[in-house]
Predict the structure of Aspartate-semialdehyde dehydrogenase.
Amino acid sequence: MSLTVAVVGATGMVGQEVLAILAERLFPADEVHALASRNSLGREVSYGDKTLKCQDLDQYDFSKATIAIFAAGGDVSKEYAPKAGKAGCIVIDNSSAFRLDPDVPLVVPEVNPDAVEGFVKKNIIANPNCSTAQLVVALKPLHDRAKIKRVVVSTYQSVSGAGKDAADELFRQTKGIFVGDDATSENFTKQIAFNVIPHIDVFMDDGSTKEEFKMTAETKKILDPSIKLTATAVRVPVFVGHSEAVNIEFENEISAEEATSILREAPGCLVVDKREDGGYVTPVECVGDFATFISRIREDPTVEHGLNLWVVSDNLRKGAALNAVQIAELLLNRGLLGDKVQMH
Ligand code: 2RA
């Protein structure tokens, strides 16, 4: 059987990034199928220098695909991912639908690659929430060295995390404010232009939001259930790129200098950290990059073994599409696609 990859939600922001990254990383697919809902039928999407015509998800035979990367939201994943899995296709799902399912591995290849072997139970592998993915890439090497006790993280999340309509709204609202047009929000609870909103996803009974709950629960599943993590997730008027201010308390001693040298060598990490004007990364500089950037590495003298970091990454890439493609690469490189694929 040839190596066929289906991209579900191919017309969305993440779906289009998946197609771009499959091409950029020369993923050796023999065929790539773009799947979308009926109202996007026939729409064309780019796949490197090729153009794909979107096929109807509802009519698609998943037994034709080796791997299906889902980027169409939780409802679509809940309905179609189990069907795809039962048809023998391996699903890599970007939604939160299966992340905490004990029979579904939640994988960040730089952090817990071996977990990918657990896909066999349901033929589904879950991609973490975008704000979790970049965080655990930065935490993993430090945890291995000095064992993390507690993490306090504040996020500054771009509007593209809420989808294309939300990104379009930031543009329209910002322009509107300058020209006196209507600046009301449809995708956010309050004005997002020139503002910040401490509310992403729904509120939980304890006063936290589901976005904050996801960061805690997913970090525990991916990295270490003993880590205590508390988060405040904030939406900011940035188009692409999530930033995070991270405070870490360790069991053991680790200096800022040692942490810096460890992070410089860590997979997926790129340290940009000079204690001078501009010596740090900001969201506009991470767009289109694969790296998880780390800046502002410094000790926290208020606790026995503490560090502060600034972590920035393209939320559409490492936060979603890149991580999914890396999981596909992991499956391929570990020979987990079995007899489904005869590599040429
Ligand atoms: C957000 N992390 O940023 C959520 C979902 N992508 O809106």
Observations:
- The CA atoms of residues 223 and 322 lie 19 Å apart.
- The mean pLDDT is 96.
- The domain at 131-158+196-313 is CATH 3.30.360.10 (Dihydrodipicolinate Reductase; domain 2).
- The longest helix spans residues 130-146.
